[in-house]
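Supplementary Methods. Inverse-folding protocol.

Structures were first reduced to a discrete structure-token string of length 244. This string, shown here, constituted the complete conditioning input.
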């Protein structure tokens, strides 16, 4: 299974910078790993037109086909633009924009019927980890997100502990491995046969320094990178580590 490396730009860069940056990353890319950039929605077309070998994904989408949903982007719009992936349920969507598991489930159900591959983000808050509830929290998010989803072919799951995102405090390799293994077991329980073939990746303060340790983990099939994905040299290093 090829490793998956996502670069989540969040709400950063300007349209006038995005194309050049994407081109430089595309040039730095070497075969053997799947890399997908997640720029702000407004820059999807520019980034798509600037890369040949990297994939391009949306940071968010809405599950309804069309209509009066001010500010939203539909799955059909992404497909029409040739966008291959979308994050679903990123912790910033959950925390800042109050997306709940039910909404995330609606998005997942809709996107699994489309040509867009979802990267479903799960992760506990620090208090939940301290209370010994990390696994129960992640399991609850997973089970609700997948409720009524018939097939999970192609689905990518990102374990991103909320306390590790943007804090510089990455999970230890042992914790990342242990949760990825737990998620894999749950996926196998819910969808027999899919435990092995579903990519489970880690996100939360991944950088040029810790990628070496993370890339050795048996149950972690890649990374979702925020801050470090905005730095050409560092993201190039991360792309290199992910190779077969
Ligand atoms: P970070 O973000 O690498 O800046 O911690 C990760 C993410 O939000 O996906």
């Amino acid at each position: 299974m090829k490793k998956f490396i996502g670069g989540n730009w969040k709400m950063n860069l300007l349209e006038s910078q995005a194309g050049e940056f994407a081109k430089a990353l595309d040039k730095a890319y070497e075969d053997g790993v799947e890399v997908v950039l997640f720029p702000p929605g407004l820059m999807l077309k520019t980034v798509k037109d600037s890369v040949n070998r990297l994939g391009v994904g949306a940071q968010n989408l809405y599950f309804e086909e069309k209509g009066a949903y001010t500010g939203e982007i539909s799955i059909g719009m992404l497909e029409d633009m040739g966008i291959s992936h979308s994050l679903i349920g990123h912790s910033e969507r959950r925390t800042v924009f109050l997306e709940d598991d039910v909404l995330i489930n609606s998005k997942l159900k809709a996107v699994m019927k489309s040509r867009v591959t979802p990267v479903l983000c799960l992760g506990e808050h620090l208090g939940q980890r301290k209370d010994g509830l990390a696994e129960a929290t992640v399991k609850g998010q997973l089970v609700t997100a997948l409720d009524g989803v018939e097939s999970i072919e192609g689905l990518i799951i990102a374990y991103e502990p909320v306390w590790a995102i943007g804090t510089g405090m990455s999970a230890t390799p042992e914790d990342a491995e242990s949760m990825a293994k737990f998620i894999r077991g749950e996926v196998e329980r819910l969808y027999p046969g899919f435990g092995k073939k579903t990519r489970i990746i880690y996100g939360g303060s991944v950088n040029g320094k810790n990628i070496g340790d993370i890339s050795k983990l048996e149950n972690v099939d890649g990374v979702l990178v925020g801050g470090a994905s905005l730095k050409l040299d560092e993201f190039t290093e991360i792309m290199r580590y992910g190779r077969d």
